[in-house]
Specification:
The structure holds two protein chains of two kinds.
Chain A (H helix, E strand, L loop, with lengths): L2 E13 L2 H6 L6 E13 L3 E5 L6 H8 L7 E6 L2 E2 L4 H7 E4 L11 H11 L4 H14 L15 H12 L6 E5 L7 H16 L3 E6 L2 H7 L2 E6 L2 E7 H5 L4 H16 L5
Parallel strand pairs in A: 3-8, 3-9, 6-7, 7-8
Antiparallel strand pairs in A: 1-2, 1-4, 4-5, 9-10
Helix pairs in contact in A: 4-6
Chain B lengths: L13 H15 L2 H30 L9 E4 L3 H9 L5 E2 L3 H9 L5 E4 L4 H7 L11 E4 L4 H22 L19 H39 L1 H6 L5 H35 L13 H28 L3 H7 L1 H12 L19 H11 L5 H27 L1 H5 L2
Parallel strand pairs in B: 1-2, 1-3
Antiparallel strand pairs in B: 3-4
Helix pairs in contact in B: 1-9, 2-9, 7-9, 7-10, 7-11, 7-12, 7-13, 9-10, 9-14, 10-11, 10-13, 10-14
The chains are: A alpha/beta, B mainly alpha.
């Protein structure tokens, strides 16, 4: 098994602004979002980061995409360090989260070309790829419609397509089906499986257990910034459903730390 | 556009052009934006200044269609002859009090009251011992036709009085066309322009930047579109330079539009003096210097505003945060109105933005030194490179780009 991602002891603390303290009813000045996370993902597999709201999934993925720097630890994407070679990491990955928006003014067609240029994709390759991807996601008819006038689902599909204009080997998706209707969500999950079939490696985060069960080869469960368990899906579920296993793990964790059980 | 990947293009810099093209596509693709930032300022300034100019001219020229209503009591023959030479109509009156009431009510404009034997008294008047005969002029300053009739009559009578003494004449041959004002067309234009234009140009350039920079930087941050750029391999400096260059060019175009509006409407604004004023007194070299200067200035302004906008969480916040910069720029700009001509010390031309104002004063007054203007341009360029470096650092800072 070829290791495509190695994460070692990542730690990230945020300074809470006064506004945020009020918003979250807390007096703490700091928030440990990621608390010493380590794991590996392997080529050709889909790795799912699972966890409740605020567990630190998005923060972990943003560190891996080199958008923010960890306070401690490091991670390597195909051997390139996110701390020391962020430029190379950005060339190798496709990254999609709901907080990355497309400019309303432009059309999918224009944006595809624009981001292809930033990724140094050859024009002939670009046209070929655009045709395929727009077809897969049914964007053809909307290629010349401004993003502002697209539906939420269509916007999400365009964002997804834009994030992989350079045909990366390693793809990081934060909540890929969040806010999508079942039909659009299916198009996206089918596409993820198709990517896997074509040998791509995928790291995604979700709190939808059924999604994880249907496409992940390996899962890591994060609670409060800590990796509670990380193994293959089969090992983790061990005959039970993922949801039940999660509740067991969560209650065990709560007991240990004196938190509230569910 | 070279679509083929040139050898060594991986070294970077190519994305600067890609970013610039996107900014241009965003701006020029939006007809409303182009109209409000590029065309409207020039058109508005032209319209407003022309309108103002016309208003001023009208105020100082007599109204041919509605001649003033002038009354005279005991009008002497000498003054009658003078009035008859002008287009001012008048009538004799015996009831001064009634006319005064009419003037108060604004139905009449002016009343001239002479002593009964005015001409004889004038003739008899020799020494300063006895009092001179008095003419009383009643008018109503709140009525513009009355005020202007007063000014005209006053001038005529003053001339008549001077003529009576006639010990000597000043500039009499002016009437025969001899020129006495020896100022050249260049001098007049240069003096007026060097007072007005540096201030106006700075205002135009600043508002040009204001129209595009906060929107493109704080706006992209606010809408989350800049994060989408930051996950691509585009280097932070490419993004900073691409943005600064393209936004500077757009701001420059907007500034030029306002400037053109000003230059074209200035003759109208200046009214009578317009004959001796023309932007054509400046040669191609002055305009080129000016262009270089303005471009280097716009780069500094754009970069400064980009820094401020990077910290802002929204376009609105950026707009507010830019106010102190505006005050500084306006303060520097009014140093051009303080007279005394441009700064002489070359060292002063190293201070960004201040050097722009002083260089503009020197160019418009046609007293510029190539060295000083050159120093100013180079200093502004160096300054904008340093500022672009700061913008690059800000784009790389997660605190600045991703703080909630
Ligand atoms: N930029 C930031 N500044 C301050 N606090 C932050 C910041 N980003 C995240 N946090 C905090 O860190 C914690 C982890 O957030 P994160 O977004 O990683 O959680 P998540 O697992 O993605 O949750 P969700 O399922 O809601 O998306 C949260 O408590 C959040 O409030
Ligand atoms: Mg999240």
């Amino acid at each position: 098994m070829e290791e495509i991602l190695r994460v070692e002891n990542l730690r990230k603390t945020f300074q809470l602004s006064q506004k945020q303290q009020k918003l979250e009813h807390t007096r703490e000045k700091k928030r440990v979002a990621v608390d010493g996370i380590s794991f590996s993902a392997y080529r050709g597999e889909v790795f799912g980061l699972l966890g409740p709201n605020g567990a630190g999934k998005t923060t972990t993925l943003r560190i891996l995409a080199s958008l923010i720097r960890p306070d401690e630890g490091d991670a390597w994407v195909q051997g390139c360090s996110v701390c020391h070679e962020p430029g190379k990491v950005r060339e190798k990955i496709g990254f999609l989260t709901s907080e990355l928006k497309l400019e309303d003014f432009f059309t999918p067609n224009y944006l595809f070309d624009f981001f292809s240029q930033l990724h140094s994709v050859e024009p002939q390759v670009r046209e070929q790829r655009k045709k395929e991807l727009f077809h897969t996601f049914g964007i053809e008819n909307f290629a010349e419609v401004k993003v502002a006038n697209l539906s939420t689902g269509m916007k999400q599909k365009v964002s997804l397509v834009i994030s992989i204009v350079h045909d990366p080997d390693f793809i990081i998706f934060d909540e890929p089906t969040n806010g999508l209707d079942v039909l659009t969500a299916k198009v996206v999950t089918d596409f993820l499986l198709d990517l896997k079939r074509r040998g791509k490696s995928i790291l995604l985060s979700t709190h939808i257990f059924s999604l994880a069960e249907s496409i992940c080869d390996r899962v890591g469960i994060i609670i409060n910034g800590k990796m509670i368990l990380c193994d293959t899906l089969q090992q983790v579920t061990n005959g039970d459903t993922l949801e039940n296993r999660f509740f067991q793990l969560y209650n065990a964790y709560a007991q240990e730390t004196g938190g509230e059980q569910v | 556009m070279n679509r083929k990947k040139s050898p060594g293009s991986g070294a970077g810099g190519r994305n600067v052009w890609t970013i610039m093209k996107k900014e241009f596509a965003r701006f020029f693709g939006d007809k409303k934006l182009v109209f409000t930032t590029l065309l409207l300022p020039g058109l508005l300034i032209y319209a407003v200044y022309s309108f103002m100019g016309e208003g001023i001219t009208r105020q100082f020229s007599p109204d041919e269609e509605n001649p003033p209503v002038i009354y005279g009591e005991n009008m002497p023959a000498s003054v009658q002859t003078i009035l008859d030479q002008t287009s001012l109509p008048w009538q004799e009156t015996q009831d001064a009090e009634a006319v005064k009431e009419e003037i108060r009510e604004k139905t009449a404009d002016l009343l001239l009251v002479f002593p009964e034997d005015f001409d004889r008294q004038v003739e008899a008047y020799q020494t300063s011992e006895e009092p001179a005969p008095e003419i009383q002029i009643f008018f109503n300053s709140s009525q513009s036709s009355s005020q202007s009739a007063y000014t005209q009559i006053r001038e005529l009578l003053d001339q008549y009085e001077t003529g009576l003494a006639n010990k000597f004449d000043v500039n009499r041959s002016q009437e025969t066309g001899e020129p006495f004002d020896l100022a050249t067309k260049e001098d007049t234009t240069a003096q007026v322009f060097s007072m007005l234009l540096p201030l106006l140009l700075m205002v135009f350039l600043f508002s040009g930047c204001m129209a595009v920079v906060p929107e493109s930087i704080a706006g992209e941050k606010e809408r989350g579109t800049i994060a989408t750029l930051l996950v691509t391999p585009v280097r932070r400096w490419e993004l900073a330079v691409g943005k600064i260059l393209s936004l500077s060019i757009i701001a420059l175009l907007s500034g030029i539009s306002s400037f053109a509006g000003t230059i074209l409407s200035l003759p109208k604004l200046m009214g009578a003096a317009a004959d001796s004023m023309s932007a054509s007194v400046y040669g191609i070299s002055e305009y080129l210097l000016l262009l270089g200067l303005v471009l280097s200035t716009v780069l500094v302004l754009t970069a400064l505003m980009a820094i401020i906008s990077s910290f802002a969480k929204s376009v609105k916040e950026a707009g507010t945060a830019v106010t102190p910069l505006m005050i500084v720029v306006m303060f520097l700009a009014i140093t051009s109105m303080m007279g005394g001509g441009p700064a002489q010390d070359v060292l002063l031309y190293m201070i960004p933005l201040y050097n722009t104002v002083q260089s503009m004063v020197s160019i418009f007054s046609l007293q510029y030194s190539m060295v000083c203007v050159g120093v100013a341009i180079v200093s502004n360029l160096i300054c904008s490179v340093l500022l672009a470096y700061v913008v690059t650092r800000l784009f790389s800072s997660e605190k600045v780009m991703f703080t909630r």
